[in-house]
Design a protein that fits this description.
Number of helices: 7
Shape: elongated
Largest sheet: none
Strand content: under 5%
Distance between the termini: 33 Å
Radius of gyration: 28 Å
Helix content: 55-70%
Length: 216
């Protein structure tokens, strides 16, 4: 049986491979020594900001410009067939919750950064529970807009039902708590990732053992 021949690289190809290896090593070094610590610190600072430490959640409520209809008439004031029925007042443009939207604008880029940076699948598999939660962040954001939109639609249609208005405010308050928890989870993920990489740095750099040449 013939022995497999080794891969032979030309001088130029070898130089390109060496440059790639050096760039990869530098990127990994920057990721561990610079990016992860900075992210942990910046997210810790973010969690100290006033807009993520709102004690009175009712202050997060956005005004709902939905007219409240008049109470139903008494029996002696009921409309006859000849009388025209009063139309339920229609509401105008209903914007989203600006305070929550501003908070989403801060948190969403952090989620995208995590997806773009943390491509170390072997490491991610070791913290699968955290990985699953990270992947659910975008679903949580989309779910908020969907559920709040449904609540606003019901409140604007059934203008006499105050519970639908309350539902909108409840959804906003719940989303605020979820966003703050999301930032904490992002920080915890970076911290755990830093811990895992630091403790297994030798295995990552030299996965074949000390007797074999380092991958870098």
């Amino acid at each position: 049986m013939a022995k497999p021949c080794g891969v032979r690289l030309s001088g130029e190809a070898r130089k390109q491979v060496d440059v790639f290896r050096q760039n990869l090593f530098q990127e990994a070094d920057d990721f561990l020594s610079t990016f992860l610590p900075r992210k942990i610190i910046s997210l810790s600072q973010l969690l100290q900001e006033d807009f993520l430490n709102v004690a009175d959640l009712s202050s997060l409520r956005a005004p709902l410009d939905i007219p409240i209809p008049d109470p139903p008439p008494k029996d002696d004031e009921m409309e006859t067939d000849k009388q025209e029925k009063k139309e339920v007042p229609k509401c105008g443009f209903l914007p989203g919750n600006e305070k929550l939207l501003a908070l989403f604008a801060v948190v969403k880029p952090e989620v995208w950064t995590l997806k773009e940076k943390c491509i170390l699948e072997k490491v991610l598999e070791r913290v699968n529970a955290v990985k699953t939660k990270v992947e659910a962040f975008q679903t949580t954001i989309s779910k908020y807009f969907s559920e709040r939109g449904d609540a606003v639609a019901k409140a604007s249609k059934e203008t006499h039902v105050m519970d639908y208005r309350a539902l909108v405010h409840e959804r906003d308050e719940a989303a605020y708590g979820e966003l703050r928890a999301m930032v904490r989870d992002l920080r915890a993920f970076y911290a755990e990732l830093y811990h895992i990489i630091s403790n297994n740095l030798e295995k990552i750099v030299n996965p074949k053992g000390e007797e074999k040449p380092s991958m870098y």
